[in-house]
């Protein structure tokens, strides 16, 4: 069993705290995405897990064993770095088997394992090539195969797909996820791409400024964000300043009654924001809904985006192509926010 328990993990560089008191549990066999904006501490946290950074405080327990002070080469973790760090002077097979070579494993075993792993990542027969004879996606697969060479109990990847173009990247996201499902290895991937995290993860860990903001299943984090940072970072959200009263919010002088299913994460009287996803914005006539003006309409192929001005606040609404509302730029319309899907968060 290789569940990970992080207990108060902290990393300071001088007076700057890059990872701040992180406590969480990662279940055995799960696929976890560490997600957050640039500089929030994702890579530092991953390096703490790998043992490549020494923590300033806290403990790391792996499968019930305290590994806080175990050096990186004594942890049976596989790692894929953002730069890939493949060796140009070695063949593809030698690259893949490199972790076995430095552990002194016999040549025949290395070759067998390399062939096995290359088949796993669909590079059969490419073992004798050099790295420069591979495409970007193939190099990515070599790095993934090498990370798996020692049959690790935990697989750590730092932005493994960031160098790929959008199409290949989406393809590799699915492939990496399927591979992990087949192997069942506990996997932690750093990404700053929320769509990537939502595609691959069982569990998303959202970080900001070194601190964990929320841990949960992707849809849970999307539907039920813990705070305005998470709501704004995961997917798109309309965040409207409001005041919370007992059973209603006041948005720009307009009272909106709350339903029991709407989620309220702050106290009455607090300055708050009302978070509404674009797909939960409905358009009606100006007399019925909150009055707003259509400022732009964008056809995105698989959806139609309508941008609106609501008393100086930008609001985005999203529709399936078949549900395109009959409105034009400049029209005055009424806004409604789908009852039950609204979240009131601390400002
Ligand atoms: P990105 O998405 O840009 O890679 P990140 O979330 O992975 O960012 P980290 O690389 O973990 O962020 O860095 C977190 C913070 O710690 C940054 O402000 C960074 O400048 C700082 N930091 C990282 N490593 C060091 C170091 N060795 N010395 C000093 N500061 C560091």
| Major sheet: arrangement of strands | 6-7-8-3-9-10
The number of strands is 21
Note the gap between the termini. 41 Å
- Second CATH tier, the architecture of the largest domain: 3-Layer(aba) Sandwich
User: Into which percent range does the helicity of residues fall?
Assistant: 10-25%
Overall number of structural domains: 2
The residue-averaged pLDDT reads: 91
Question: Strand-residue fraction?
Answer: 35-45%
Backbone CA Rg: 24 Å
- Which spans of ≥5 residues are poorly predicted at pLDDT below 50? none
Kindly describe this structure.
By secondary structure, the protein is an alpha+beta fold. It folds into two domains: 4-223, P-loop containing nucleotide triphosphate hydrolases (Rossmann fold, 3-Layer(aba) Sandwich); 236-346, Nucleic acid-binding proteins (OB fold (Dihydrolipoamide Acetyltransferase, E2P), Beta Barrel), CATH 2.40.50.140. It is 24% helix and 35% strand. The chain is built from eight helices and 21 strands. The protein has helices at residues 42-50, 92-101, 107-120, 136-147, 166-183, 194-200, 218-223, 228-233, and strands spanning 4-13, 16-26, 31-35, 57-62, 65-66, 77-80, 154-158, 186-191, 203-208, 211-216, 238-244, 248-251, 254-257, 263-264, 271-276, 281-284, 290-299, 304-310, 313-319, 332-337, 343-346. Strands 6-7-8-3-9-10 form a six-stranded mixed β-sheet, with helices on both faces. The chain has a six-stranded mixed β-sheet with strand order 13-12-11-15-21-14. The longest helix is centred in the middle third of the chain and has 18 residues, at 166-183. It is elongated and about 80 Å long. The model has no long low-confidence stretch (mean pLDDT 91). Adenosine-5'-triphosphate binds next to helix 1.
